[in-house]
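Provenance

Sequences were taken from public entries as deposited. Structures were produced by running a predictor on each sequence independently, with no templates supplied. The record for Family 43 glycosylhydrolase from Sphingomonas citri is shown for reference.
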Amino acid sequence: MRRGASLALAVALLAGCATPAHNPLFAGADPAVLVEHDTVRLLPTGRGDTLRGWVRERGRWRAGPPLIALADIRWAPDGAPRHFLWAPDMLATNGRYYLYYSIGPQNPTPSRIGVATAVSPDGPFVDSGRPLLTGGAGFEAIDPAVFADPHDGRTYLLAGGSAGARLRMFELASDRVSIARELPVTQPPDFTEGAYLHERDGTYYLSYSHGRYDRGDYSVHYETAPSVAGPWTYRGRLLASDSRYKGPGHHSFFRDPADGRWKIAYHRWEHVSGDGPYRGERQVAIETIRYLRDGRIAPIRMTP
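Predicted structure for Family 43 glycosylhydrolase:
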């Protein structure tokens, strides 16, 4: 989740161009992942007015067409202060695609999460016509992450963080554009934003970012549980700044169809030093992760 000038990216200029599949992949932030068959899509924050996906083909990444623009969302405020569109996630189900996104800032108007649908992952997406979730009372409606549980058949939405630093969890209705109910969730230690949920071999992993996005303390922490309902056990910090790369976070996990290995997509700052605040553009990267025998994830090392 990021605001202002830090949202500026070169994606619009790179549309139709391809980049090699080694780190960093391209300028961007907050990458979500959608895997279908042999295709991997990354969905990063864009310039703030448009969302666009990236697709890996034959070992290279190319920018796809625009998915949705802020101007196409009728309920999005169009006056001062300037509003931004960021931190998307996508779900494929029922023969359709559902795109979730944040619109903010929180003040003076509350942040909101919206959802749009399309018949193709390349869009164009049509907004549902109303916010799915609105912030307020110490809660920022940002950073949506959707999780379809393979065991109970339900779809869950995680949201929240930043200045409010409060996580909330919901079960989505069968139409995926409305909320069925809110679920209780214990606030994770050191939670700031960017929560993500995935499952492997019956273990559930709730991971999230801690710290400030433009500083060296930005990092990924995680918990594990036997089900979405918990109980959750804090497992510590998973990904953190090193001597070369700073502020890694706002990530997603996926199993890569190219080699069958589990990986993490995230953003980081390159060519910066000190503790921040950093300036410029963040870069999207992918690392292979390793699960230990007890289900924990080995600390992740960032690679060039």
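The chain has one domain: 4-288.
Residues 11-14 form the longest helix (4 residues).
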